[in-house]
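Ticket reopened. Same input as before:
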Amino acid sequence: QLQLQQSGPGLVKPSETLSLTCTVSGGSFSTTNYYWGWLRQPPGKGLEWIGTIYYTGSTYYNPSLKSRVTISVDTSKNQFSLKLTSVTAADTALYYCARSFWSEYSWFDPWGQGTLVTVSS
Amino acid sequence: DIQMTQSPSSLSASVGDRVTITCRAGQSISTYLNWYQQKSGKAPKLLISAASRLQSGVPSRFSGSGSGTDFTLTISSLQTEDFATYYCQHSYSTPWTFGQGTKVEIK
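Engineering reply: fixed in the latest deploy. New output:
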């Protein structure tokens, strides 16, 4: 059964860089039509797609965050990572990694356990 | 960006009730629509893809329908374990966006 395990700090100072990693186990990391994504959910609010990466390194970002986001992949470790620069309090959220099937249709399943990241000095 | 609007934002229902949640897209998205269930403190779980394809392991009391701009998620007989927040999400084009959620509470 595919599992996604997130790691990274839960507290980041304003103007600094948020960094999270998602480690995939129990399944193939480099499968056709399966991508890897990051999403977030501010406290008490809805879900926002941040970006998605293919095992080849191709990336797709939400234009609203594109200038500050970098998603990378390490196939040797079955990991993909998120970096979000110049964070502010508005970036405080529960961050999720997820596998994304993407062909004609796309969806996110399964999801990691979530990491609450608070931006505060 | 395609705006997704769910209604209602919340509802109260009893075990055994039939529950319908609506999701409206800001433009036609054919059947590029997914539904997720999120229980308190947990990650979202995919229930339905492509508007009506029930995911493996999801109870048959869940069903999805619609195309174009209007979609519905129906729970035919609400069970205790179904009390949660439900989100729709379009996959028509990036950026993918979600509805604001519908919280299903116990009456």
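Chain B has a mean pLDDT of 97. The longest strand of chain B covers residues 19-25. Please confirm and we'll close it.
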